[in-house]
Amino acid sequence: MTALKSGRVALVTGGAGGIGRAAAMRLARDVLTVILVDIDDPTDAAAGITALGGNASGYACDVTDERAVAALAGELGATHSSVDILVNCAGIFPQAPFADTDLDMWEHVLEVNLTSVFLMCKSFVPTMARSGYGRVVNISSGTFFVPAENYSAYISAKAGVIGLSRALASEYGSYGVTVNAIAPGLIRTLTSERLVEAEQFARVVTSQAIPREGTTSDIASAVAFLASEEASFITGQTLMVDGGLVRL
């Protein structure tokens, strides 16, 4: 079990499914109170964690909406003494050639993948700083390091997540707050199964040092480490979790 102090509260966006749900389940194992947030009602995911003996609750919230995020922060402030760990997993990755990427699509992809991280950090990181403790883990993407065709908006947004993570790490390190990013490789989720052809999964696996598909549990374990007490001297970093596809 990763060393996490009992009584800590973790908030995970995108918690209804995929990497977010796996991260929430993993953090709940570490005797944490976990808050799942998603535009799709995450109460079923929270109930699943509770059924396994964890302590979880779910909140439906559009994390691209500044007023909705502020209202969420206010509601949580009334029920929890603090949010100690923030994991930003909410994301979308629609495919489109650059020539077919119009401004509406560009802005929507940036809103979900990058602006949501800004809004959540804006609402919760200053409070962490005042308390003298915080862990922020932002989910970026390995496509920043190995760009793929037809993902110009997505890759640009995920690059911004890395930049924002580094900037916040510099600004809040002296307050006891660490901010790191995780760059997953190709991970099998319900969404990736729908958008990525089976042949592409196979091609990626053959290029990795570890010849198997990545799972949401692989990413969740990395989240738990960066959220732990052991990671107190790690900040401003981007952790590749891709089976050795990228070897920096």
SSE order and pairing:
Layout: E1 9-13, H1 18-29, E2 33-38, H2 43-51, E3 55-60, H3 66-79, E4 85-88, H4 103-131, E5 134-139, H5 152-172, E6 177-184, H6 190-195, H7 198-207, H8 216-226, E7 238-241
Parallel strand pairs: 1-2, 1-4, 2-3, 4-5, 5-6, 6-7
Helix pairs in contact: 1-8, 3-4, 4-5
Question: What does this molecule look like?
Answer:
The chain is α/β, with parallel strands linked by helices and 248 residues long. It has a single domain (9-241), classed as 3-Layer(aba) Sandwich (Rossmann fold), CATH 3.40.50.720. Helices cover 45% and strands 16% of the residues. It has eight helices and seven strands; from the N terminus they run βαβαβαβαβαβαααβ. α1 packs across α8 and α4 packs parallel to α5 (152-172). The longest helix has 29 residues, at 103-131. The chain is globular.
Which key terms come to mind for this protein?
alpha/beta; 8 helices; seven-stranded parallel beta sheet; Rossmann fold
* Overall shape: globular
Q: Give the integer mean of the pLDDT values.
A: 93
Count up the helices: 8
Q: Kindly, what is the distance between the CA atoms of the first and last residues, rounded to a whole number of angstroms? A: 28 Å
Name the structural class: alpha/beta
- What is the CATH third-level topology name? Rossmann fold
Q: What order do the helices and strands follow?
A: EHEHEHEHEHEHHHE
Largest sheet descriptor: 7 strands, parallel
Q: What helical percentage do the residues reach?
A: 40-55%
